[in-house]
Amino acid sequence: MIDTEALDSGLGDADDDDFDPAVEDVDAELPDHRYTDRELSWLAFNQRVLELAEDPTLPVLERANFLAIFASNLDEFFMVRVAGLKRRIVTGLAVPTNVGRAPQEVLSDISSEAHALQLRHASVWGDMVQPALAEAGIEIVGWEDLDDSERGRLYDYFQAQVFPVLMPLAVDPAHPFPYISGLSLNLAIRIRNAKTGRQEFARLKVPPMLPRFVELNTGTSVKRYLPLEHLIANNLEDLFPGMEILQHHTFRLTRNEDVVIEEDETENLIQALEAELLRRRFGPPIRLEVTEDMDDVTLDLLLGELDITDQEVYRLPGLLDLRGLFDLSRIDRPELRYKPHVPTTATAFQPAEQNGRTDFFGAIRAGDVLVHHPYESFTTSVVAFLEQAARDPHVLAIKQTLYRTSGDSPIVQALIDAAERGKQVLALVEVKARFDEAANIVWARKLEKAGVHVVYGLVGLKTHCKLLHVIREEDGALRSYSHIGTGNYNPKTSRLYEDFGLFTSDEQVGRDLTRLFNELSGYAIEKKFKRLLVAPLHLRKGLLRHIEAERRNALDGKPAHIRIKVNSMVDEQIIDALYRASQAGVRVDVWVRGICSLRTDLPGVTDNITVRSILGRYLEHSRIFAFDNDGDPVAFIGSADMMHRNLDRRVEALVRVIAPAHVKELTTLFDLAMSDATSSWHLGDGGVWTRHAFDEDGKPLVDLQDRTMAQVQRRRRARAVR
């Protein structure tokens, strides 16, 4: 088990065990009902995504993309969060809740809010985005909108490309009700035998490997698409010759796909995980989406066969599974998208001469390098550094954590290349990364075959930290080059996710990572980390120590300011510490993308707390923790959100950023995000988020992501002039 002591971060080397925030001298009591329900807060986050789709000032293909993101997010919410709550209720396990309500009441509130959001989602598509697409020359049409010529051409396509892969499954005494896979799109069909007059039921799965929207060649600039399920539904006679088609309706099932592994009881984690992934395919149903015109006979049959309750049925107008709108990304209409941002190469990593090659080791030796993705390129920094390390004859060893990476990852290939060149290579592959488990197993085995030492971390903990450690021989001595990031080593998502990464050759960080990797791959128990805060034992205590220092500074009349940027703010102990800091007069700024259980409407408690959320073209993913520290600012970046799982059940790491220019860059970005002149959502009374996108004159507020890209571009131009 990981054990760390307080790092050299402005608070000395005191033993963390001497600090117990639960018994600190606190003057004011906190109110009982001081947290927002985490599940409802997550739904509020997804509503913010939906509000972007509702925004008529955004490019219309981007609005369609936000509708698809909303749908994908909600699917995962049901498969994991709702499924987990139901599993705990059924098995009698305690249901974690930070608002003291009965589990069934929580599920009822989730159902009510999710129903309203799904109806709103369908309305945004049918009433706003679909008409806006049509005005732009992209029409998503129904069968009734086609003329005879178009229907004829589509019938030819149906016969050639669709009909051969369809598999209608009848339900009768000889054919039991078929298995319905999770998230598949299906047609429920009721037919009558023309000879016997007997009514039958059949299920037809819409083939997921075919394009969701079938393009009609109009011969004009207008693009017309027919949903695949409409094409199939209007040609059912070919599938059931001699039968009368009585009814056909689209439906979609969501299953419990949460993976539960009892690691203490298994001898082989990979084998146990593979068995659990197989079981996940057959998880119990938790949501049934149907078209609003589905007749009661068909619905009752589905309810009975799938063991679904009325509360779990979602009747929706229009198309089901709007994840299919991701397919519109192939349309070549750049004017209907965000204006392109072209990532730059970080200033420190730009070649000294045109067409020259970057010496990453020399650049990092010159000083710590802080890189901000996707404004600064992941490919020309992290990937290029690792590729150079794999080739460099002076590099002796490479150690890296891999939580999520792309299927054709140059990261994985670089590790393989390094191993094949005779270097010591250690890859800590987290095979329990949700929904990437199967892919990570494949890459773990590929790495092992290439001679990479592959380990899977510590029993009972996910390894979520983003670490890369390179050991190089220089002038007869060993030198460490390290990278600690806030995001995954994934070149694909790095173009969409906002993250920071710190490159350093600092000896303290090198020793910290050597010790941490030894613990993750072996049995070492390390107690000394200098520039890192590491979970699960002491990261929480380290942050609480800094929050407490700000509180005491405020009580002593000194300036005090806390800035925290995370994806989720849920942990009660951290939230309570922020409340007490606010009561003492500390200015507390929280920038959160997703769940936020912290409230801002508690008089006398949250008067000094401001909470903002920013959503846009990039997914805000970095985690930043900055403290005023009586004029000597302390800042960290890393992988940890303020959630129980991150602080208690994961290996996480924050690194202290020490270069004054880097600390200034982080706090300046933070201040821009919190400014009333920046477009964002403000958390207010009752946990309600209100979007502030325009000023009093109706002019758009500052877009933080556009502004950041412009600033990065200016820095590059300034260097070019020098």
Automatic annotation (TrEMBL):
It catalyses: [phosphate](n) + ATP = [phosphate](n+1) + ADP. Mg(2+) binds at R404, R434. Keywords: ATP-binding, Kinase, Magnesium, Metal-binding, Nucleotide-binding, Phosphoprotein, Transferase. Residues 1-22 are annotated as: Disordered. Its cofactor is Mg(2+). An intermediate of this reaction is the autophosphorylated ppk in which a phosphate is covalently linked to a histidine residue through a N-P bond. Pfam families: PP_kinase, PP_kinase_C, PP_kinase_C_1, PP_kinase_N. GO terms for molecular function: ATP binding; metal ion binding; polyphosphate kinase activity. Residues 616-646 form the PLD phosphodiesterase domain. The keyword Glycosyltransferase does not apply. Catalyzes the reversible transfer of the terminal phosphate of ATP to form a long-chain polyphosphate (polyP). This is Polyphosphate kinase. It comes from Microbacterium imperiale. The gene is ppk.
